[in-house]
């Protein structure tokens, strides 16, 4: 088991083959960050490791023994913070959007089992969670904490995601023509854009409906907002966040059967669907090398998902 505060071995890069890749002479590689599992399982993996690494280090340096963070009831980030807290010795508080529902869904049940204290905020108050008085009342109630924003996106998270690019460059000997990643808050993509320093074109596929992602990424890039080597595709949300309609299910099932790689139902299935669709449409020049980042998110997968998709266990 590797400590998140030390250097972990790089996640592997795996090439995949498909007819559409041959037809368009594209080399497609998958950066298997889903296999980056410093706590020993997929409850804490993928972009969560990248985003939390320097935050956990900062929390420890600040001698904080408690992490407090925010998320929806199905948040991968909530699950990851709970598991990281358990693994690295922090108490954890998860401030959850909306009302409590019993029984807890698998994400929150797991977070509780990992020792996270759940606190629910009605949607109205949750929306105002970044206002100083709301945050203060939470800290008064739960005690001094290292506060992680929703989705874990902050400067230190971007720094962790930049390292993904360094790793890829070391593994391949050079950066690919394109690097593709799924977007939720945009933090992972912003870190990757910074890491590329104009050498690869970074493609984001948004898991959410709407056209605000590029603006948000520019905001996250801050003084690096003059970087232009990137773009976000917003046509692959399949109805919006956490929508997983039959076409996407069928794609996810076939992808796993053909390539032996499980995609998560919220982010990476839309990413791979989108990139393969763009390849089929001839968007990339022949001979291009594309690295697609598998950012994890498999913690919410359970047996009922296998049954839904008709996958063998
Ligand atoms: C598996 C997975 N991939 C990608 C993302 C998107 O990351 P970001 O919020 O940094 O855009 C998330 C977000 O939580 C995620 O859980």
From TrEMBL:
The keyword Aminoacyl-tRNA synthetase does not apply. The keyword Translocase does not apply. Residues 19-296 form the Tryptophan synthase beta chain-like PALP domain. InterPro entries: ACCD_DCysDesulf (IPR027278), TrpB-like_PALP (IPR001926), TrpB-like_PALP_sf (IPR036052). It comes from the Bacteria. Pfam families: PALP (PF00291). Its cofactor is pyridoxal 5'-phosphate. The active site is at residue 75. GO terms for molecular function: D-cysteine desulfhydrase activity. Keywords: Pyridoxal phosphate. The modification N6-(pyridoxal phosphate)lysine is found at residue 48. PANTHER family: 1-AMINOCYCLOPROPANE-1-CARBOXYLATE DEAMINASE-RELATED. Belongs to the ACC deaminase/D-cysteine desulfhydrase family. This is 1-aminocyclopropane-1-carboxylate deaminase. It comes from Flavilitoribacter nigricans (strain ATCC 23147 / DSM 23189 / NBRC 102662 / NCIMB 1420 / SS-2).
């Amino acid at each position: 088991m590797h400590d998140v505060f030390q250097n972990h071995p790089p996640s592997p890069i795996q090439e995949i083959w498909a007819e559409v890749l041959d037809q368009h002479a594209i080399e497609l590689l998958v950066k298997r960050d889903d296999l980056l599992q410093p706590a020993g399982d997929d409850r804490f993996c993928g972009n969560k490791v990248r985003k939390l690494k320097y935050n956990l280090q900062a929390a420890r340096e600040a001698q904080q023994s408690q992490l407090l963070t925010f998320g929806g009831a199905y948040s991968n980030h909530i699950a990851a913070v709970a598991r990281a807290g358990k693994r690295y010795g922090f108490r954890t508080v998860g401030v959850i959007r909306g009302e409590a529902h019993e029984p807890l869904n698998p994400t929150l049940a797991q977070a509780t089992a990992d020792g996270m204290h759940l606190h629910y905020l009605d949607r109205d108050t949750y929306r105002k969670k970044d206002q100083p008085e709301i945050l203060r009342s939470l800290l008064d109630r739960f005690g001094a904490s290292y506060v992680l924003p929703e989705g874990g996106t902050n400067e230190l998270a971007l720094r962790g995601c930049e390292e993904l690019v360094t790793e890829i460059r070391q593994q391949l000997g050079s950066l690919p023509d394109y690097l593709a990643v799924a977007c939720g808050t945009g933090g992972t993509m912003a870190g990757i854009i910074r890491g590329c320093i104009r050498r690869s074109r970074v493609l984001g596929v948004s898991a959410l409906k709407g056209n605000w992602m590029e603006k948000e990424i520019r905001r996250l890039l801050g003084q690096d907002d003059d970087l232009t080597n990137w773009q976000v595709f917003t046509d692959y949300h399949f109805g919006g966040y956490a929508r997983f309609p039959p076409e996407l299910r069928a794609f996810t099932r076939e992808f796993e059967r053909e390539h032996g790689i499980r995609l998560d139902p919220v982010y990476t299935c839309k990413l791979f669907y989108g990139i393969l669709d763009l390849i089929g449409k001839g968007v990339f020049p022949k001979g291009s090398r594309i690295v697609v980042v598998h950012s994890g998110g498999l913690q919410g997968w359970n047996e009922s998902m296998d049954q839904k998709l008709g996958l063998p266990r």
